[in-house]
Amino acid sequence: MNSMPPPEMQMEYSAGALKDGGTLTVTVTVPDKWHVNANKVTDEFLKPSSVEAKAEGLEFGEAVWPEPIKEYNEALELEIWTFRGTFSVKIPVKAVDGTNYDSLGTTVTFNYQACDNSICLAPASKTISLDGSLNGGAVGA
């Protein structure tokens, strides 16, 4: 079957009181034998991974990604940048509305294109919430 189950995802805020300069860490686990494109791609037809965090009363900065893996893809006949296994993306908290924010309502959407050694799937996304109100199922992009 040519489909990858959605990646596992978790998120957590840095310890202590939520404030400007804090961090929201999103941990993604890609199933074995699959990879997702890195946040930067080496060819225009590859879709880069991205994350989007939302929470009432919070403003987030630009995501900080880990160093991607550089590998040669035989099917594509080019070097690509990927993420495999488990990796974490850190999203800085730029501003907190001190009296009116809802960190428990935080949602994170991970947009990705999954590939194995022979096929790349259509881009997809998965959204999770800190309060568990979303089931985190895959949604087509």
Structural overview:
Helices cover 0% and strands 45% of the residues. It has strands at 8-13, 23-29, 35-37, 50-54, 58-60, 69-73, 78-83, 86-96, 107-112, 114-115, 124-129, 138-140. Strands 1-2-8-5 form a 4-stranded antiparallel β-sheet, with no helix packed on it. Strand 6 (69-73) and strand 7 (78-83) form a beta hairpin.
Task: Give a quick summary of the entry.
The protein has 141 residues and is an all-beta fold. It has no helices and 12 strands.
Topology (SSEs and partners):
Blueprint: E1 8-13, E2 23-29, E3 35-37, E4 50-54, E5 58-60, E6 69-73, E7 78-83, E8 86-96, E9 107-112, E10 114-115, E11 124-129, E12 138-140
Antiparallel strand pairs: 1-2, 2-8, 3-7, 3-10, 4-9, 5-8, 6-7, 9-11, 11-12
